């Protein structure tokens, strides 16, 4: 998606540890007009698939998922990273190692909100090593729902998580795939 790539080039900053900082428009301050364009792009790619639910993971996936969901007119369910008195009943759980927090979370989704009747699209802001996506796929599998695929804003292709999952037959649509990046350059996959 050209508009997203331009924003990455003009506002993105490459930090140590393979971190791309895009907090001015993606995951701290959020550009809702850009998110709306992403929603259109994902809808175009998944328009034949009769999605019934969008699944994401807190925190950074939630904003994008909500605006994307407007284009599919379906609810968003997000996997929670912490225990809460507000989270009751039976849960699907899966361990996920967080890329930026550098720790493992047992993430949870209430069984009330995901079932075998659902056709699920996973939405997230980043795909790097694939840990978040693998954990969400595990939860979707536990629920018996059908996984249609994933929609990712920025995939850091050089970390390999996306391609490993594609090799397993998972459909992943990423709007910008970075194959290489350094302090003063970012190279996108064609
Ligand atoms: O493919 P991976 O290596 O799993 O990386 C991708 C994940 O990393 C980020 O979450 P993170 O937990 O780092 O931060 P957040 O709390 O801001 O969502 C991002 O939002 C994705 O969920
Ligand atoms: O802001 C972010 N930058 C990144 O490079 C990244 N990788 C996973 N999750 C990420 N979030």
Automatic annotation (TrEMBL):
| One record GO biological process | XMP salvage
Residues reported to bind 5-phospho-alpha-D-ribose 1-diphosphate? 128-132
Q: Any idea where the Phosphoribosyltransferase domain is?
A: 35-157
- Pathway(s) of this molecule: Purine metabolism; XMP biosynthesis via salvage pathway; XMP from xanthine: step 1/1
One example GO MF annotation: xanthine phosphoribosyltransferase activity
Tell where it localizes. Answer: Cytoplasm
Q: Which reaction does it catalyse?
A: XMP + diphosphate = xanthine + 5-phospho-alpha-D-ribose 1-diphosphate
Enzyme Commission code(s) on record: 2.4.2.22
Keywords recorded for this protein, A-Z: Cytoplasm, Glycosyltransferase, Purine salvage, Transferase
Family, as annotated: Belongs to the purine/pyrimidine phosphoribosyltransferase family. Xpt subfamily.
Self-association and partners: Homodimer.
Tell me if Plastid is a UniProt keyword of this record. no
Function in brief: Converts the preformed base xanthine, a product of nucleic acid breakdown, to xanthosine 5'-monophosphate (XMP), so it can be reused for RNA or DNA synthesis.
Per UniProt, xanthine binds at: 20, 27, 156
The answer to keyword Transferase applying to this record is yes
Q: Which CDD domains match?
A: PRTases_typeI
The name this protein goes by in its record: Xanthine phosphoribosyltransferase
GO CC term, one of those recorded: cytoplasm
- Root EC class: transferase
């Amino acid at each position: 998606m050209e508009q997203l790539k331009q924003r990455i080039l003009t506002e993105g900053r490459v930090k140590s540890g393979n971190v791309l900082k895009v907090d001015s428009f993606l995951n701290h301050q959020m550009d809702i007009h850009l998110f709306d364009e992403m929603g259109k792009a994902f809808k175009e790619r998944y328009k034949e698939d009769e999605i019934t639910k969008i699944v994401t993971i807190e925190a950074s996936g939630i904003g994008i998922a909500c605006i994307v969901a407007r284009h599919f007119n379906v609810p968003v369910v997000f996997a929670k990273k912490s225990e809460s008195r507000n989270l009751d009943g039976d849960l699907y759980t899966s361990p996920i190692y967080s890329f930026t927090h550098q720790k493992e979370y047992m993430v949870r989704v209430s069984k009330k909100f995901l079932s075998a009747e659902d056709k699920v699209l996973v939405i997230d802001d980043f795909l790097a090593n694939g840990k978040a996506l693998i954990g969400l796929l595990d939860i979707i599998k536990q629920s018996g729902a059908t996984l249609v695929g994933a929609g990712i804003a920025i995939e850091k292709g050089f970390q390999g998580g996306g391609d490993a999952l594609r090799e397993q037959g998972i459909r992943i649509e990423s709007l910008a795939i970075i194959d290489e990046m350094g302090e003063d350059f970012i190279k996108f996959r064609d």
